[in-house]
Design brief:
single chain; 294 residues; alpha+beta; Thiol Ester Dehydrase, Chain A; two-stranded parallel sheet
Amino acid sequence: MKIDTELVNTPYKEYTTQIDWRSIMNYAAAINDDNPYYFNDEREDGIVAHPMFAVAVTWPIIENLSEFIISKKFPIKVFKRVVHYYEHLIIHRLIQSGDQLKIKGKIVALLPHRAGTLVIQQFEARDKQEELVFTEFMGGLLRGIECKGEPKGMENLPIIPPYKPSGNPIWDTTIHVDKLRSFIYDGCTNIFFPIHTSKKFAHFVGLRDIILQGTATLAFAVKEIINREANKNPHKIQEIACKFTGFVFPATNIQINLLGKNTKERTSELFFEVSNEDKKKVIKNGFVLLKNEL
């Protein structure tokens, strides 16, 4: 099968969703994050969502893509070969309980890869005042799908600052992923895919067991960065990005390493990675941009 780069800029139907306090709390609970910003509804400003909550907001589009793509030419069957490869979130403000979000999406880039084709989807979420809340670039690897035509859309993608780690990590921490975590994340976020909850399906695709959701692994890392580098204040998060490069199995440990930090006048650039119990990197090129002051 092939996918033509002329399909870049294929739009999606608009999606509208109402955010409630329960879904915000459930997401934080799914990653064992008891930060009061997500739970204390007696706070003067109310509760806000974990920065990674954005991936749960756009999931209904990704899960039902054939219903949203506005193109009869688009070969929707190629998405049966997709694996989550790349994530880049730009947080304009944190999602709040009571927000009504309108989300517009499109195919923003198609690029050849040694294993197939990279397809990058862009989602923009706006509130009732038409103000941007978040922008998500979600990259999928279409395994075995040929990219037809010249690479297209690279100029549309946000740039991560270059960084070469040197020496030991600034800090590292080990997190235990309990055996029910992928089920809890599935149930609390409504991000459903059987590879995370069905042994039968996992075995069918050649895995020894179900695997933790990649966005859950990323959320665990972001939680640690907020707690250690942002004084537990999620409002300081401006960007989150990474590549997913491996699997995390339940009832194992992950290690989060903060590799480096560039502090500027108004922001700090943080670089991290995550390894599984076999010492294999499951998140590479991890990047978080923090506001130094609010």
